[in-house]
Amino acid sequence: MGRKILFITTDQQRYDTLGCNGGSLSRTPVVDALAARGVRYERAVPQSVVCMPSRSTMLTGQHPSTHGVWMNGVALPVDAPSVAAVLHQAGYRTALVGKPHFEPFLDPFGRFTENTLARDGLETAQTRWADGTIGPHRGFDHLEFATHSPAGNLHYARWMVEHHVEALGGFYAVLDKDLEVNADGGGDTGAPQVKVNPVERDWYHTDWVADRTIAWLDGLEADDDWFCWMSFPDPHHPWDPPASELGRVDWRDVPLPAGYPESAAERERILDDKPRHWRLWYDGELVSNYEAPTRWVPAAMTADQVREVNAVNAVEVELIDEAIGRVLAATSARGWDDDLDVVFTTDHGELQGDFGLLFKGPYHVDGLMRLPLVWRPAPSAGVASSVVSRPVGLVDLAPTFCAIAGLDAQPWMQGQALPGDDGDAEARGFERVLTEWDSELLGVGVHLRTITRDGWVCTTYRRGTVHDGTEGELYDLVADPLQQVNRWADPATKAIRDDLVADLHDHLPPVHSPRLPLEAPV
Amino acid sequence: MRGSVRRERVIAVPADAAWRVVTRAELLHLWFPGIVACAVEGDTRTITLGSGMSLPETLLTNDPLQRRFQYRIAGGLFAEHLGTIDVIALGDERCLVVYSSDADPATMAVVLGGATGSALEELARQLESGSGPVLDALATEATT
Fold first, then answer.
1. For chain B, which terminal residue's Cβ has fewer other Cβ atoms within 10 angstroms, N or C?
2. Sign of torsion, CA A391 A395 A399 A402?
């Protein structure tokens, strides 16, 4: 009998939303306790700051350039490498409960397996793996899907329709009547994508994901080895948690984020120091990411709206923490404590008011790039608790799962098993992390390549429809933790910039060929 | 907001061979993944998608000289739509098939663009291999 793996992801959660990372808005005692007994990473960086590429990196252990999911709406090939398939072949029972998003959600043609097996009520499908094996879809024996709303055909939506159809109208409509991402505001302040949702807490997708995870675990034998990816759709917008829980955090008491300059003139000064797509988006003149509402103008956002978004987000984070607590109680009741590894992270962050912006996009700064990551190794492994300050990436998760299972990392994996402490990180060369952005949508093309190393974040821009390829960003993460001073053109940091750019180019990953097509907006 | 998405594919068959398939509106489901059925009556084609959704279309252009086929999805999620398939000869043995989707909302142009891309791949696969459901249908028709 080996170690069991509970892999917990959230969607679009900032580093500073956890108590163990210094957050004070949300109470997160469950994840904080995991961090206290395990390894907490202070500089975990995604390889993409949007869902589909980032989640594909978690599954494949590859950078977006290599697995080929270069933007949201590009489907990860069904036969792409999968760490779940590796674990399945090693005898693990495998499940993914919650948000997958390796394939587009908008799928009226029913072309993608995630949608069709959910539509047909199937537990999994037999598909071809990277090594030619025919096995359960992407290596998962059990798939049960949810996303940010009960719209569509995923399992959660079907469950809501079957059992609580009267509650559907309480959720925020992700798309408006024109199928654009909805810009409507709500709550007390009219904040975008906020809605008071009268849904019962038990019916909300956070608790549903925990309930279905527990149900799957209940069906396992005590000595089964298992890998369960429990994937919460929150705290990704829309921000519409159960209304009964909103009293946990009163937005009127929420301080403005440090990254939100209250003065419009100051926000504009900071944005004007960055490549031009920052200010263009702020002014409502450019949208380069489908998930940002095209009809919403960030410059019009008020300070109170920033407070309310942060408050509602904090409520969602608390609900997730409590849901995780229920699942851990269930694993404990099964007697699995000593042999259970728990990994908690998210796919990318959320700007949440930084620079006067919300949501996400081609903006490689801490709001989107500094992620919560906690690994509580199985107590039986005897790993001491620690804090790792060196940079690690989500690309390192797949080899970590292999290491936990006693397997070698696969040759197609591009990361390495997470370090147990900074000494381990230094010895094994955890020095740099790369992040990519590519988007080409409705005439707008944006392309970024970023390196995080030695306390700096350096972003280069490739030629697109907004940039000529000479732009860049360089931030000193120690002296400028809010990334408000772009030192790309500062002569005093030219040597650092040039060294980072050269290092970035030296470590760019292989590119998937042929380039995969954009199948849908998201 | 309106959107326009174009997909294209060079196919190693004469332009007339590709056009012979493209122009047969009632056979679309045999080479377009995600369309499970279609029926033509007059200048109206009704397609049924894999999700179960049905969409009525109006057939607009069937021009064998330019090898241009155009249709419009009428209603459903669309405020406006125009689908255009152009088959362009590249010498005697190859052709370029261009499939354009113009739509309002733009979201649907992107969704259609993805689907038409996979349709072109399937069209190329059948034509270049000389076998597949749409060629079978045409062969059966020729022998009866």
1. C
2. positive
Pairwise pLDDT comparison (A179 vs A240), residue with the higher score = A240
pLDDT exceeds cutoff 80 at B129: yes
The ranges assigned to domains in chain B are: 3-24+57-136
Count Cβ–Cβ pairs < 8 Å, chain A vs chain B.
75
- Which CATH class name applies to B3-24+57-136? alpha beta
**Cα A2 to the center of its chain, rounded Å:** 28
Using DSSP, state whether A110 is helix, strand or coil.
coil
**Radius of gyration (Cα) for chain A, nearest Å?**
21
pLDDT tens readout for residues A95-134: 999 999 999 999 999 999 999 999 999 999 999 999 999 9
Round to whole Å and give the CA distance between A137 and A464.
36
Amino acid letter at A423?
A: G
Which of A112, A116, A179 to mutate: most B Cβ within 10 Å?
A179
Are A111 and B115 an interchain contact pair (Cβ–Cβ within 8 Å)? yes
* Closest by Cβ to A106, choosing from B1, B53, B111: B111
**Alpha helix (H) residue ranges in A27-148:** 29-37, 51-60, 64-67, 83-89, 113-119
Query: Rounded mean pLDDT of chain B?
Result: 96
Please list every residue in chain A whose beta carbon sits closer than 8 Å to the beta carbon of residue B79.
178
pLDDT at position B144, please?
Answer: 74
Q: Number of helices (H) and strands (E) in chain B: give both, helices first.
A: 3, 7
Where exactly are the structural domains of chain A? 4-431
Report whether pLDDT(A312) > 80.
yes
Search chain B and give the residue with CA nearest A291. B107
Does pLDDT of A488 surpass 90? yes
Average pLDDT over residues A439-446: 94
Say if residue A62 is exposed, middle or buried (CB neighbours under 10 Å; 0-12, 13-18, 19+): buried
| Residues paired with residue B101 on neighbouring β-strands, in sequence order | B5, B83
CB A82 within 8 A of CB A60: yes
CATH assignment of A4-431, among 3.40.720.10, 3.40.50.300, 3.20.20.150, 3.90.1150.10: 3.40.720.10
